[in-house]
Write a structure and sequence with these properties.
With about 280 residues, this protein is of the alpha/beta class. It contains seven helices and twelve strands. The strands form three sheets. It has an eight-stranded mixed β-sheet, with helices on both faces. Strands 2-3 form a two-stranded antiparallel sheet. Strands 8-9 form a two-stranded antiparallel sheet. The two termini are about 20 Å apart.
């Protein structure tokens, strides 16, 4: 990622005393993980999905021998721009998470667990309140998307720094049907210009702060953070993501992530994604 506006972090790889150019922007990472995972169940409806002693939530489920959250933390710990990582979890899971994952990610930056709210939006609001408030960018990423590529994250950060807001996504490549009551097909929806939103969703701090201040004025259900920016008239750029950026919602999603890791993800030499659209 190229250097940006922040005055707190120098660009890596430049010898001391030499001109470094514009400093690298800094980022707060928020990993919402307070969902209860109602659709996630072990086959046959029996057995624990999480390790013994862990609260029953998807982010603590074992993926290739480690909790899902550990994989996701690794993705962001490797980014030079990240200055803090904040994870909203179910309130009853805060103490267990702190004891299990510690107070710092692998890079040494602060790892903060907070009790989540009643829904995703309120959980992110709790995380924003716990942030030091000094970073240039806020990166919000589903904790249950452990296979996000570094190149995609960095491109989303670059675009958000320039445009204010960026959402990673993937163009719809299936036929889309709108159905009426009784699951009868009402129409086939043209898929041109339709994208499936993923995460991360990245924002300049001032943009997402204003959007969350106005969140209670938004009518209807809010399902992602960019929707709040859209509601206040903000423009959001799309960044092409990656089909491997799976959100673990069901046991089948978990098995797919396991298979990708076993097959060698992220497949050296096959990095894809990271192109801005819109």
């Amino acid at each position: 990622m190229r250097c940006g506006r922040s005055e707190r972090r120098a660009c890596p790889g430049v010898p001391a005393g030499e001109s470094q150019g514009p400093p690298m922007p800094t980022a707060t990472v928020i990993l919402p993980a307070a969902g209860r995972g109602a659709r996630f169940a072990m086959p046959g409806g029996g057995g624990r999905a999480s390790p013994v002693g862990a609260p029953e939530t998807k982010v603590f489920v074992s993926l290739a021998g480690r909790p899902v959250l550990a994989h996701t933390l690794d993705r962001f710990a490797a980014l030079e721009a990240v200055v803090e990582v904040i994870v909203p979890v179910p309130p009853e899971a805060v103490a267990w998470a702190r004891e299990t994952f510690g107070e710092r990610v692998a890079s040494g930056r602060p790892l903060i667990f907070v009790g989540g709210g009643e829904d995703r939006v309120e959980s992110v609001a709790e995380a924003l309140a716990a942030s030091d408030g000094k970073s240039d960018l806020v990166v919000i990423h589903d904790a249950v998307r452990p296979l996000v590529r570094r190149a995609v994250v960095e491109e989303a950060m670059r675009v958000a720094l320039e445009r204010g807001a960026a959402v990673v996504g993937w163009p719809v490549d299936h036929t889309v049907k709108r159905v009426s009551d009784g699951r009868l097909v009402a129409e086939t929806v043209p898929r041109e210009n339709l994208w499936l939103a993923q995460t991360p969703q990245v924002f300049r701090r001032d943009v997402i702060a204003r959007a969350y201040e106005r969140r209670h004025h938004v009518v209807g259900r809010v399902t992602d953070d960019a929707q709040l920016v859209e509601a206040m008239g903000g423009r959001v750029a799309m960044v092409r993501g990656d089909v491997a950026n799976v959100k673990i919602t069901t046991i089948e999603d978990l098995r797919l992530c396991e298979a990708l890791l076993e097959a060698g993800w992220p497949f050296e030499g096959e990095e894809q994604g990271g192109r801005a659209d819109g």
